[in-house]
Structure to design on (313 residues):
């Protein structure tokens, strides 16, 4: 309820006040936090591609999750598009409480984020968090996470430290997202057992025969880590740059969009902007919603400028 009220209040204040104001020159560069996760790369790529024909530049700061929120507080970055609730709730709560970080909008529903296993491991009996320790030897006492500092890794470390589910003798293997997936694919080829961080949206759900574990509600949230993703901004950003505030409030994603764009990045070798251009070319109807009420930096109507800039008739 608290999140909904904050989002509604911020969104209303942006849209109700000075609805078609253009931004000043000090707003020309939007500074985006980048967690270096493929879904965030896709999100930031989409934002950059849309902002360029509007007359804005984007600057990416690659940061770990804890540093992202600290950087928003310190006004070193403006926006972060990949705040997953409830998994980031403990990280971001102090900043929401002191007002240094605000929630602009919920940008995606239907996501999930929890521990997963290959389907043959599920069929072998490991279906619940409480089953993990039973198979410690087959798992080599390891759980595969992503990069150090991520909120998912911290949850796993907290479980190990607190001996939740009897995991005190387990090790968290930290690596990049891609390195983790490469290792899991190697294990799948050999039918070796593994527990790893899984999430949707992500093309892993199509590439791997995998199942999400039950029983982790107290750690990753209900519905197998069901998540809401929201856009975080530094305090004052939407007031200082109302047009950018309106843009980032209107920029919404879907699981299907991110699954597809992430596939372009991971499987086709595209960068975020190239993936965004391809996806927009196939779904130009999305531009109207993303750009409703948004202008160029100098105050012209935004939608025609973006359509022209992207070569969309």
């Amino acid at each position: 309820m608290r999140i909904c009220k904050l989002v509604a209040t911020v969104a209303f204040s942006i849209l109700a006040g000075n609805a078609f104001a253009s931004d000043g020159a000090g707003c020309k560069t939007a500074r985006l936090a980048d967690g270096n996760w493929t879904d965030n790369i896709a999100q930031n790529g989409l934002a950059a591609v849309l902002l360029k024909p509007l007359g804005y530049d984007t600057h990416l700061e690659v940061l770990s999750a804890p540093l992202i929120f600290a950087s928003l507080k310190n006004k070193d970055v403006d926006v972060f598009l990949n705040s997953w609730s409830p998994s980031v709730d403990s990280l971001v709560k102090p900043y929401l409480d002191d007002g240094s970080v605000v929630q602009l909008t919920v940008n995606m529903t239907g996501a999930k984020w929890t521990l997963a296993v290959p389907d043959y491991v599920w069929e072998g009996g490991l279906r619940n968090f409480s089953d993990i320790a039973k198979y410690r030897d087959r798992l080599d006492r390891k759980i595969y996470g992503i990069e150090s500092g991520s909120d998912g890794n911290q949850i796993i470390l907290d479980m190990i430290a607190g001996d939740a589910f009897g995991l005190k003798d387990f090790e968290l293997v930290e690596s990049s997202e891609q390195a983790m997936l490469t290792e899991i694919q190697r294990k799948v080829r050999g039918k070796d057992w593994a527990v790893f961080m899984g999430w949707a949206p992500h093309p892993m759900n199509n590439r791997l025969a995998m199942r999400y574990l039950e029983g982790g509600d107290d750690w990753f949230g209900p519905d197998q880590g069901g998540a809401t993703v929201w856009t975080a901004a530094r305090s004052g950003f939407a007031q200082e740059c109302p047009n950018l505030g309106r843009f980032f409030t209107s920029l919404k994603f879907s699981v299907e969009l991110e699954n597809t764009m992430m596939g372009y990045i991971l499987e086709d070798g595209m960068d975020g902007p190239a993936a965004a251009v391809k996806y927009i070319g196939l779904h130009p109807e999305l531009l109207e919603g993303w750009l409703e009420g948004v202008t160029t930096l100098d105050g012209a109507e935004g939608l025609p400028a973006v359509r022209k800039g992207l070569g969309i008739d």
About this structure: The two ends are 42 Å apart (CA to CA).
